[in-house]
Amino acid sequence: MAKIPLLGKTLSELGEIVKDLGMPKFSAGQIAGWLYDKKVATIDEMTNLSQKNRERLKETYEVGASSPVHEMRSADGTVKYLFRTPEGNYIESVYIPDGERATLCVSSQVGCKMNCMFCMTGKQGFSADLTAAQILNQIYSLPERDTLTNVVFMGMGEPMDNLDEVLRALEILTADYGYKWSPKRITVSTVGLRKGFERFLRESNCHLAVSLHSPFPAQRRTLMPAEKAFSITEMVEILHRYDFSKQRRLSFEYIVFKGVNDSLIYAKELVRLLRGLECRMNLIRFHAIPGVDLEGTDMDSMIAFRDYLTRHGLFATIRASRGEDIFAACGMLSTARQQAEKE
Ligand SMILES: C[S@@+](CC[C@H](N)C(=O)[O-])C[C@H]1O[C@@H](n2cnc3c(N)ncnc32)[C@H](O)[C@@H]1O
Ligand code: SF4
Q1: What CATH class is the domain 4-62?
Q2: ipTM value of the model?
Q3: How far is the CA of 121 from the centre of ligand 2 (A)?
Q4: Does residue 330 carry a catalytic annotation?
Q5: DSSP assignment of 48-65
Q6: What is the mean pLDDT of residues 182-189?
Q7: Which CATH architecture has domain 70-342?
Q8: How far is the centre of ligand 2, averaged over its atoms, from the C-alpha of 330 (Å)?
Q9: d(Cα 224, Cα 55) in Å, to the nearest integer?
Q10: Paired strand residues for 209
Q11: CB proximity list for 50: less than 8 A, separation 6 or greater
Q12: Which one of the listed residues 105, 206, 279, 330 is annotated catalytic?
């Protein structure tokens, strides 16, 4: 029978495990230390547990870490890793070094249910939720794990659609018994789901990025079907009730599509919609995907758009596009691998 991973277990869950196995209560903290501080690969390395207890633990559990099965390196230093889950699904993580910073973009699901028009993962459809173990493994088993400064949930999947597991991973990354990271190092990106949105705001202190892409609900619905169930106007109303002026940051993601959402009326409406919110706007270049009739706007228009927003009180930046030579648009590598296996 397949063993259960210890990776991804919170301290209280480890407490239950050691209790069930008749091990001393304090072993939960010891196991957490071996996992999240020393990052061991096997239970045998947990040498302050007695030999008997290690054997007992090994009957049912394993550390559960697994290295990436494939990687693609970009000329700009970006590396895209492909991990295989025990069920045989493929997920992507993208490592993005940038001067002093090194950011990992992690996946929260295999595929996605949200079906955004411009997204390769959306086209792939939904296959499975990732467990906290599989989310954390992307960080745990990353070859560059010791250089990581930031994590963004901007890989495959919609984090709010798998919130229990995402919150479990966030707890482990930020807890004293876990990675001890400041929540300021972590950003969760979402299209916004009614179920989950406020829970995330209440239960986590990590930064929030909202994928906006159009300030007009009718148009946003055509780009992002999730708008039908939970409108951006309602989301903005809710966001006004939370404080983003201190440690926690709120940002909006906006892919600038040529002739679709890049003219002055869009910029004006964005300023109106977000007035009074402490936030910033990230303008994103569109990574073209096969079979989709959308095009990214040119750089001059993007700069003009950015400058209008910033002049009118909405601080905006243009996100550098990384790894274009390695299919960095999310979902492309795993889709290619799945296709290859089918052929
Ligand atoms: C892949 S999503 C994952 C997180 C979450 N599901 C969301 O949509 O915010 C991360 C970001 O990538 C953006 N994105 C998706 N497809 C893209 C593409 N083809 N080009 C540029 N950005 C894209 C999304 O809009 C979102 O802001
Ligand atoms: S953009 Fe995000 S929510 Fe939309 S399909 Fe892609 S992963 Fe899912």
Answers
A1: mainly alpha
A2: 0.99
A3: 6
A4: yes
A5: TS-HHHHHHHHHHEE---
A6: 97
A7: Alpha-Beta Barrel (3.20)
A8: 9
A9: 50
A10: 189, 251
A11: none
A12: 330
